[in-house]
Design goal:
alpha/beta, about 10% strand, globular, 16 helices, two-stranded parallel sheet
């Protein structure tokens, strides 16, 4: 059997916040990422370069304008130094994985993804948009950066609302996830109330980037229909690899009697909900993967069939096959060394890391992935 890197089997990447840099770079340049990404991004002081741009006297007139912000300046820097002025048209023509870059719409509090499906809602052609602008929106941490603003042209292109949205809204099942998704997408169509969309850090609406996958399947009746819609109905194995780089919650305040500082309180106010929401999202996805696997075997082998006991032919081989799902989580909490685990989870969320920190992160990612039991099962089955 011919062997090739697992990276060549990646079909979809959904990313938020800082992960959008890596996702977009891989989507544009493929395995070149293993050659130059450390130099281009990981080991660069991007934060220092941004600060230098802000204090540059030549930029003062632009920064005084209400229509030009630090986020716009960051877009220019990323465009010049990381993505080489690539647009979404270049991303599509690269023939790499389908990359979903997620941001959060500030006034609606909902997820906005930089895909043509979402761009169609606001009657926008995504092809000429710089990839750097989407990445800047996805990683625009509130307070540090202003949101990225885009114009909402909904209603100008004659777009028809999808049937599933109309049916979900007509159901009036206000507590259902499908109704909620349809309502959120319909809100984007209201150009009168939302003539402009202000987009910032995607982690605030979905800190793991998993909702794009969950919502995508939710729009169809089941996983079989979703794979058919993606022209992947011959798929027999789906591998979901979650890279979860969440940091540890602050414990220093609990060791002191004094009232926690403002920065500690602000950090807790954002981190605690994100941690809890992330946990629930992972738990939900695991449940959905089990359901989807069962649905696929029911569809192919009849109700109640399972991977271990489908109908057998005379040679003892499986007469029918569904879709097998593998969920692999790369999480620093799974690092076997407690000291290293503590070091990794205390690294700051920052646009500048020391070379030592980068070395630790790369080695930890490799170690945790290879030690993951589900990943080992996947590799064993593939031999």
């Amino acid at each position: 059997m011919e062997q090739h890197p697992l990276s060549e089997e990646i079909d979809v990447i959904t990313a938020v916040s800082g992960g959008s840099f890596t996702a977009a770079y891989f989507g544009l340049y493929g395995n070149r990422i293993f050659e130059d990404y450390e130099r281009v991004f990981l080991r660069r002081d991007v934060q220092g370069e941004l600060s230098g741009q802000v204090i540059n006297p030549l930029n003062c007139p632009r920064l005084l304008s209400p229509f030009y912000t630090r986020a716009d300046m960051a877009t220019e820097l990323y465009n010049e130094t990381i993505f080489d002025h690539a647009t979404f048209s270049d991303l599509r023509q690269a023939n790499g994985p389908y990359v979903i870059i997620n941001a959060t719409e500030m006034t609606l509090g909902t997820r906005f993804q930089f895909t043509q499906n979402y761009a169609n809602i606001i009657c926008t052609d995504l092809s000429q948009l710089p990839v750097a602008r989407a990445v800047a929106a996805s990683s625009a941490v509130p307070i540090l950066f202003s949101p990225i603003t885009i114009t909402n042209r909904a209603g100008e292109c004659g777009r028809q609302q999808p049937a599933w949205v109309q049916e979900a809204l007509a159901s009036q099942e206000r507590t259902s996830r499908l109704y909620n998704l349809a309502s959120n997408m319909t809100a984007l169509e209201d150009r009168e109330d939302h003539p402009y969309l202000h987009l910032f850090d995607g982690g605030l609406a979905d800190n793991l980037g998993l909702r794009a996958m969950l919502d995508g399947a939710l729009r169809h009746q089941g996983i079989v229909e979703a794979l058919d819609a993606l022209q992947m109905n011959d798929t027999r194995k789906v591998v979901v690899i979650l890279v979860n780089a969440e940091t540890a919650l602050d414990v220093e305040s609990s060791r002191k009697m004094q009232t926690p500082t403002f920065s500690a309180s602000l950090g807790a106010a954002t981190s605690v909900p994100l941690h809890r929401y992330s946990f629930e999202t992972v738990a939900l996805l695991k449940e959905r993967l089990e359901d989807w696997e069962q649905q696929s075997y029911d569809h192919e082998c009849g109700p109640g069939a399972r991977p271990a006991d489908p109908q057998m032919d005379t040679a003892g081989e499986n007469e029918c096959k569904g879709v097998d799902f593998h969920f692999v989580e790369v999480n620093f909490s799974e690092h076997p060394d407690p000291d290293e685990r503590d070091y990794l989870k205390r690294l700051p969320t920052s646009f500048v890391l020391t070379d030592e920190a980068v070395d630790h992160l790369i080695e930890a990612g490799r170690l945790v992935l290879r030690n993951n039991s589900e990943y080992q099962r996947l590799i064993t089955e593939g031999k």
